[in-house]
Design a protein that fits this description.
Length: 276
């Protein structure tokens, strides 16, 4: 996709998240600002840390982390449209010295093992091979560092119509199920000290939308949404399908630590003889 394409993309082909970003939505994950606040609390950030935000979207969390904790953030995404908006938002927020935006695929991150103190992925792994993505998040985290992820889940078993509307039509190919599923995936990727927070999916409820975007942001979003026939058509198709799934949907924040490397016995310091 060229730069021009990122400004005037073919709306019909956009996934719902890219479409929301095009209309100016800033927070594009199921737990909204509430789950991002939980990530900020669980991550135990301190100034100067190296943080990676994978699938950064329009860089709202990356900018927030830099402003709030004075950490240095690398924000990567696979979508040219998201990257263009992320770069613009970082520039406008005046944090270009602390947030770097670049291309990166969650299943093949262009970083060395242990390159970051903390790695975040909000609503990204379910688009790809989830086990592989979780292992990759752990790989680029330093031993003793934290991995923090927000995931979708079904809070209660969805009706067949709700499941089909969300996973079959709105987000075809996306894969998620229950909390136990995510516990298995992140535990299996090697994280320890796992902690969870969960709550309802409010991104597309009136209350959640206003909490995430504010009255001005929500009004701008609606104005943009009504500014072209193609946007109106896409909203009219997407919103009722998402609404069908909302009562069953929720979010899960997963926080876990990459264990410190075990010291091989041969390299471990010799036991000191007891002094008498
Ligand atoms: C639901 S949006 C979340 C955006 C952002 N994390 C947020 O919470 O606002 C999913 C994001 O993941 C990105 N994405 C999808 N597949 C990806 C991949 N393989 N590697 C990196 N990013 C990916 C999308 O482009 C999109 O920006």
């Amino acid at each position: 996709m060229t730069t021009n394409d990122t400004r005037r993309p073919d709306v019909k082909k956009l996934d719902p998240y890219a479409f929301f970003a095009l209309l100016g939505k800033r927070v594009i994950h199921p737990g909204g600002r509430r789950s991002t606040d939980q990530i900020m609390e669980l991550g135990k950030f301190s100034p100067g840390q190296r943080v990676l935000d994978v699938g950064c979207g329009v860089a709202t969390t990356a900018i927030g982390l830099a402003q709030r904790f004075d950490v240095s953030v690398t924000a990567v995404d696979i979508s040219p449209l998201m990257l263009a908006r992320a770069e613009r938002n970082v520039r406008r927020a005046g944090v270009s010295d602390r947030v770097t935006v670049s291309h990166g695929d969650i299943v093949d991150l262009p970083f060395a093992d242990g390159a970051f103190d903390c790695v975040i992925a909000e609503a990204v792994t379910m688009f790809v091979d989830r086990e592989r993505a979780a292992r990759e998040l752990v790989r680029v985290t330093r031993p003793g560092g934290w991995v923090l992820a927000t995931e979708f889940l079904w809070r209660r078993p969805p009706s067949p119509a709700a499941r089909e509307a969300f996973l079959g039509q709105v987000c075809p190919g996306m894969l998620f199920d229950t909390q136990e599923d995510w516990e298995r995936i992140y535990g299996g990727a090697g994280l320890s000290e796992l902690e969870y927070r969960s709550g309802p999916f409010e991104m597309m409820t009136v209350r959640g939308f206003l909490a995430d975007e504010g009255v001005v942001g929500a009004t701008r979003f609606m104005a943009r949404g009504l500014s072209r026939a193609s946007y109106v058509r896409k909203l009219a198709w997407t919103v009722p399908r998402v609404a069908r799934a909302v009562p069953y949907l929720g979010y899960l924040v997963v926080a876990g630590r990459r264990p410190h490397e075990a010291v091989p016995t041969a390299l471990a310091p010799a036991a000191q003889p007891a002094t008498i």
